[in-house]
Amino acid sequence: MNLPQHVRLVEVGPRDGLQNEARPIAVADKVQLVDDLAAAGLRHIEVGSFVSPKWVPQMAGSAEVFAGIHPRAGVTYSALTPNLRGLEAAIEAGVREVAVFAAASESFSQRNINCSISDSLERFVPVMQLAAQQGIRVRGYVSCVLGCPYEGDIAPTAVANVSKALLALGCYEISLGDTIGVGTATATRRLLDVVGRVVPREQLAGHFHDTYGQALTNIYASLLEGVAVFDSSVAGLGGCPYAKGATGNVASEDVVYLLNGLGIETGIELRALAEAGQRICTLLGRVNGSRVATALLANSC
Asked: Rounded to whole angstroms, how far apart are CA atoms 105 and 144?
């Protein structure tokens, strides 16, 4: 069994985790969260997104958050930019890495961004061109890779086609998202076998939601397939809007605990990460979604 010696976590809590929170969150509190995560050893943090505040009100202050954080050497602070206008705003805010997203499901693409998969990819052409001109790296997300709330199962070849297209556009890495968290280990390995034929595995990442409690299992399955980058969210911030009351993002603390147990290096200090997650949960008035953090902090009392 050959597992990666080092794994990079992409912390999406400040963006994917907070974007659906109903309670307003002050810019200063978002800045504190980002700084706490960097202090805990996270080396890639998705700080926010440059989208219309009409659609995602919680992300309206992303430029102010970027202006307020205290950058640490060696840390990538990225943002989601779904269109050219978003990229232009990100550039103005001094962002040096961005992400774009497409879906592997036609139905999801239509309902989520009101266009077909091919049209969404076409919209990224000017985004990629401007990013290249500005020396900005672009990461690609593919959603619904293991299931769609409208279509059910998604063929791995459909995921491979979208992933290949994003790579051809210039994305340096493709994050495969199990948006509704229905994937299992066998399905995950089958997916990576197919996608890995058109995208090198060192350019693939896993983004697993824990709706059915399978996220850590799917991460382990991905490790066995040679994937060494995973997206996660501190304290499990973020829900699954397609499964009412269900857990969303896998908790960063739980992933780090798994990786520590496997002897895989992350550079992340688990207790500091757990404390950062608990601080934001207390602020939000919500239960900590990380089992590891809950156990770890309870034992320290």
From this structure: 6
Element (H, E) at 35: helix 27-39
Dist CA 181 CA 192 (whole Å):
16
Residue 174's contacts (CB-CB under 8 Å, 6 or more residues apart) are: 139, 140, 141, 142, 163, 166, 167, 195, 199, 203, 204, 205
% of the chain exceeding 90 in pLDDT: 87
Q: Buried (b) or exposed (e) across 1-22, using 16+ Cβ within 10 A?
A: eeebeebbbbbbbbbbbbbebe
Counting Cα atoms < 13 Å in the Cβ hemisphere of 156 gives 15
Classify residue 269 by burial, with Cβ atoms within 10 Å: 0-12, 13-18, 19+.
middle
Reference 142, options 97, 179, 196; nearest CA is: 179
**Domain boundaries of the chain, sorted by first residue:** 8-299
Q: What CATH number does the domain located at 8-299 have?
A: 3.20.20.70
- Residue 244: the pLDDT is 60
What pLDDT score was predicted for residue 293? 98
Query: Mind listing the pLDDT tens digit for each residue in 208-243?
Result: 999 999 999 999 999 999 999 999 999 999 976 665
> Which residue in the list 144, 240, 281, 301 is annotated as catalytic?
240
Residue 240 designated active-site: yes
pLDDT tens, 38-75? Answer: 999 999 999 999 988 888 888 889 999 999 999 999 99
Closest alpha carbon to 241 in 33, 100, 55, 99? 55
pTM equals: 0.96
Secondary structure (3-state) at 220? helix
